[in-house]
Fold this protein.
Amino acid sequence: MEGGAGHEPVLRDVVVELLRPGRCGLMLDCTIGLGGHAEALLSAAPEDARLVGIDLDEGNLRAARDRLSRFSSRVRLFSACFDQADTVLAEASEGEADAVLADLGVCSMQIDDPQRGFSYTADGPLDMRMDPSGGTTAAQLVNRLDEKSLADLIYQYGDERYSRRIARAIVAERRNRPIERTMRLADIVAGALPRPAAAARRGIHPAARTFQALRIAVNDEMRSLERLLDKLPVLLAVGGRAVFISFHSLEDRRVKNAFASLAQGGKAELVTKKPLSPDPEEVEKNPRGRSAKLRCIERIA
Ligand SMILES: C[S@@+](CC[C@H](N)C(=O)[O-])C[C@H]1O[C@@H](n2cnc3c(N)ncnc32)[C@H](O)[C@@H]1O
């Protein structure tokens, strides 16, 4: 996660140290975002090292293209879902990468733009698509799913214990008129929580878990991540390293399990036995990075 062009991406120096760009011919950034990690990696890589970057968000790709322009033809950027990373590498006429990075989730530029619908603190259309050119919006899910499916989704992807109350409130409210705006949904969710529970979530907005759940569902985030993890053995060259940074337990569990099974199958070694997190100084500068968990593996024979 990163705070905008010019700001530092989460765990930047750790990413550079673990991915060892000095030894890389080809690096693959599956979530190029605003290009912060990519810039740090390219700056530390040999002059002929190349980087292939992927993102679903056209606006972020444009920002990354600007930020990385000084590396010119060493950088190729693609608008795609990272679960297509193997196809992207083939299209770029590249083979396996020596470094693979996935810094999951959304970046600040997306959250801070109310028009994208990710924010529960600024009003905007209830959208949440990382690629706004297609797919289902959060408004469509909220207005179309039956109460049980909505409750299950909020529980499963938001780990929200009041999911049933929230789903009930949403269904009651949408009978009056469809729920199309972020602030209306945030108010409905906040009103559905028992008051002591809402107060107990000090510093965390009562709608945060519900918004997270909808974002994951809208973008089919867990399945894309699983497909990317399945493809790691074909993306990563022997001796190369992969770093994944996740921002909630659903992601981290998938990364942890996939890395463990690659290690058990003799295809990789765990470089980080336990996940790494930003130190308090970094969290102070970039509070949104506080839940980051970084894991790294190295591909072996
Ligand atoms: C946390 S940001 C990455 C920030 C980046 N590391 C930097 O330094 O600027 C995550 C990025 O991943 C993108 N993204 C999320 N899911 C994706 C997917 N399935 N395929 C491709 N890009 C995705 C988002 O659009 C966002 O730009």
About this structure: The mean pLDDT is 94.
